[in-house]
Hints:
single chain; mainly alpha; two-stranded antiparallel sheet; 22 helices
Amino acid sequence: MNSAGYRYAASDQAFYIPAIVRHLAPADFPRDAPLIDGQARMTLVDEALAAVVQATGVSLQWLFAILYGVTLAVLFIALVRLGRRLYRSEWTVIALTAALTLRHSIAKTGANTLEGYFHPRVLVFGFGLLGVAAFLERRDWLWIALVALGIAIHPTTAVWFGVWLAIAAWFGRPSWRPALAGVAGTAALAVVAMVWRGPFAGHLAPMDAEWLSAISDKDYLFPFEWPLSAWLLNLLTVPVILSCWRARRRSNVAVPGETPLVLGALGLLVLFLCWLPFDAAHIALAVELQVSRVFWLLDVFATIYVVWWLTEDAADTARRTRRAVVLAVLMVLSVARGSYSMFVEFPDRPIVDVDLKAGDWRDAMAWARTTDASSGWLADPIHAARYGSSVRAAAYRDVLLERVKDRAIAMYDRSAALRAADRERALAALSWDTPDGARALARRYGLDYLIIDRALDLPLAHRSGALFIYRLR
């Protein structure tokens, strides 16, 4: 409820669904394949999920719903295990799980602590937290395996957990230092290979003006463009972690392995500071790595400590009362905020939407799937935000532009950036929602259909309620 309900095909699934469909139906997306592959080539999750669909016959809708449930379960299990290692009371553990339902964005990083749809990034974040718990439990092969699994699913999120835990292991497992040095050297060689002839070939050069222009609205990629408030919010996590850690040491409640984790968290901050000059120079690989997302890890670590400070850092006589008050406040906040999101902010959304929301857009996309797989579509550039899903994710058809996602993918590939920029210029010069403009765009880009919410003087191919689908050639 705090994520405004579960939804299929929302937001970043505008990329993940087409990437999976590319493996299931190679004939689909003949025009947009280079755009989709620009990001898909960096992960294995699309290939893995396509293989699951082929092996089991499960629909993408149900696969994503199941994985969303798995994600929430992994996050819950990770928080319980961490809480039981760091806290004295099960009630504090419950308070922690309540605190982590309070979805929020990590300032100017493009990451949210929870999503209302399945996202591999959040699943890997859950694996990472399980890895942190395993480190405290000295189940070392488990956290290593979790990081390795995460790298195959969402590399950057897993790598930041890997860095955190590797630094913690350096200080907490001194006998591992030769092995850790060897792993670091091997990883460096692997990076060199990927930059030399792998998926990051050519990405050590600075982004040129055209590339930067195509992603200019993604200001979260460039920390020196952040407002002061974003810097303060993100950096505040560090003194919170340090002060709570010192308080726990003074109270003799710090557990084995905790101090190395704090040092690992400081290592993440150092990594961010070392990355800043390369990002400021607009080195492509540095921008694509989005190292600022280490603040997501610092945010959850700080939250774990703050919950302890609010509930257990007190004399025995006051601890029980404080714990009850904090737990009650967090539960009320979570229920109230979730209820507001579901019943006031988005009253038309059910708590769970396993498939596309029923309505005109869903019907129109179902008809679109009956058209030739090579057909090209024209729609409002912000149609995904307007209707809840993109043409690519809902109909498996190429579309001239889906502004939000195309600009995000443009970060990973210069040709995708130039493609998006060219189409933005064309849409600025030609009105896509007029007969003449639509026809001109169709001639220029080989488009076949226009979907729009008003009647036009064009040949009607199909109508779904308030939505009209016109032939453009």
